[in-house]
Design brief:
The complex is a heterodimer of chains A (about 220) and B (about 210).
Chain A (H helix, E strand, L loop, with lengths): L4 E4 L5 H12 L4 E4 L11 H4 L9 E3 L4 E3 L1 H11 L13 H31 L9 H24 L10 H4 L2 H8 L5 H5 L2 H11 L2 H11 L2
Parallel strand pairs in A: 1-2
Antiparallel strand pairs in A: 1-3, 3-4
Helix pairs in contact in A: 1-3, 1-10, 4-5, 4-7, 5-9
Chain B lengths: L2 E5 L4 H12 L4 E5 L12 H4 L7 E4 L2 E4 L1 H11 L12 H33 L6 H22 L12 H4 L2 H8 L4 H5 L2 H11 L2 H12 L1
Parallel strand pairs in B: 1-2
Antiparallel strand pairs in B: 1-3, 3-4
Helix pairs in contact in B: 1-3, 1-10, 4-5, 4-7, 5-9
Classes of the chains: A alpha+beta (about 220), B alpha+beta (about 210).
Keywords (chain A): Cytoplasm, Detoxification, Transferase
Family (chain A): Belongs to the GST superfamily. Phi family.
EC number (chain A): 2.5.1.18
Chain lengths: ~220, ~210
């Protein structure tokens, strides 16, 4: 039996929590290895060997060491295709194409404004960094436009890529969680009928509840 | 029924898809979208991509948007044709890592620089020197990581040319035509990799499409 896979980084990191949610969905045992970002551990030579950009997460199993949360998620899903949630990253080529499309939409269009807002609203105050009001205003507007398009899509589709919860939906969990809690942006989601339904459904999944619990206990 | 690509010959994202199709020797129909007239922000284009961006792609009944999802689809669906742009098994994990690196580390700074140094002049808009000053060192740091990586691996993802390299071509070509060329020239492994991938015949075909219009 293989040893638990290793995930390096704090649970509070959005990118780390993306990977954790995926591992939980796939029933893959993991070990969390702490990285002390407050002391700059992620920028030190030892850590840079496993993540040359000095960011979290990094990942290792018995055969490989990789980084970039979305690449890690794809790898976990492909390697453990028969475990846990089999619909997460379907092996059917046409379904997979739709998942990839919405995973790219998350990475390229949802992530930039949402992560800028998460930084400004959730992390900057904690780090004693002054909030950039211009950035908040600009990214609120961008996020609003993206959510309008999501609401339209989710009118005719239960989840982003189709009828099943997939990596495309999962990838949105970390940033959105911060936005609707400490970021006070719940209304942006609850005021859009289909987005509201979708967010309630995906954030109620056992895997995500477990991640939130892990974030609280750190 | 032949595959269709809706987009623009000067759109970096559209060019990513053209490059993939040419690498794999696949027939396709190019459907130009009038970006200057805002065609991509209206119906019927929005039915193909609700985000109002090019490219959009059709293969029979399958419709896709997001260039990197389109290239992945083509590379897997037509794995046996032309250049294999992905790998089977374990090497694909590392190719996947460097595809994300292009999308999130390289492109973040490269596209801002490309906008200031290439597109704004094209549209008669003034360049914002502060943006260039902010993003140039950030791109340089990314290229330092690339230099180290390319000292261990012939191409970014593995020892053969894959989507991890190909995805860089449109923006890279743009930046190599600006003073930022110096960032690439200053790093020997990066410089050799740039020269190698830009010299690919499939890429020359993509660039030739621009002079045909």
């Amino acid at each position: 039996m293989a040893a638990p896979v290793k995930v390096y980084g704090p649970t509070l990191s959005t990118a780390v929590s993306r990977v954790l949610a995926c591992l939980l969905e796939k029933d893959v045992e993991f070990q969390l290895v702490p990285v002390n970002m407050a002391t700059g551990e992620h920028k030190k030579p030892e850590y840079l060997k496993i993540q040359p950009f000095g960011q979290v997460p990094a990942f290792q199993d018995e055969s490989i060491a990789i980084f970039e949360s979305r690449a890690i998620c794809r790898y976990i899903c492909e390697k453990h295709a028969d475990k846990g949630n089999k619909n997460l990253y379907s092996t059917n080529p046409l379904v997979k194409a739709s998942i990839e499309q919405w995973l790219e939409a998350e990475g390229q269009t949802y992530n930039p404004p949402s992560s800028a807002l998460v930084f400004q609203l959730a992390f900057a105050p904690r780090m004693n960094i002054k909030q950039d009001e211009e950035s908040i205003k600009l990214n609120d507007q961008k996020l609003s436009k993206v959510l309008d398009i999501y609401d339209q899509r989710l009118e005719s589709s239960r989840f982003l890529a189709g009828d099943e919860f997939t990596l495309a939906d999962l990838s949105h969990l970390p940033n959105t969680h911060y936005l609707v809690t400490v970021g006070n942006r719940g209304e942006a989601f609850s005021s859009r009928k289909n987005v509201d339904r979708w967010w309630n459904e995906i954030s109620s999944r056992d895997s995500w509840k477990k991640v939130v619990e892990m974030q609280k206990s750190k | 029924m032949v595959m269709k690509v809706h987009g623009g010959v000067a759109s970096t994202a559209t060019m990513r898809v053209f490059a993939t199709l040419y690498e794999k020797d696949l027939e396709f129909e190019f459907v130009p979208v009038d970006l200057r007239a805002g065609e991509h922000k209206k119906e019927p284009f929005l039915a193909l991509n609700p985000f109002g961006q090019v490219p959009a792609f059709e293969d029979g009944d399958l419709k896709l948007f997001e260039s990197r999802a389109i290239t992945r689809y083509i590379a897997h669906a037509y794995a046996d044709k032309g250049t294999p742009l992905v790998c089977e098994g374990k090497p694909m994990a590392t190719v996947g890592v460097w595809m994300e690196v292009e999308a999130h580390q390289f492109d973040t700074f490269a596209s801002k620089l490309q906008w200031e140094l290439v597109y704004k002049p094209m549209f008669g808009m003034a360049m914002d020197a502060a943006v260039v000053e902010e993003n140039e060192p950030k791109l340089a740091k990314v290229l330092d990581v690339y230099e180290a990586r390319l000292s261990q691996s012939k191409y970014l993802g593995c020892d053969c040319f894959t989507l991890a390299d190909l995805h860089h071509l449109p923006t890279l070509t743009n930046l190599m035509g600006t003073p930022l060329k110096k960032l690439f020239d200053a790093r020997p492994k990066v410089s050799a990799w740039v020269a190698d991938i830009m010299a690919r015949p499939a890429w020359a075909k993509v660039l030739a499409m621009r002079s045909q219009k």
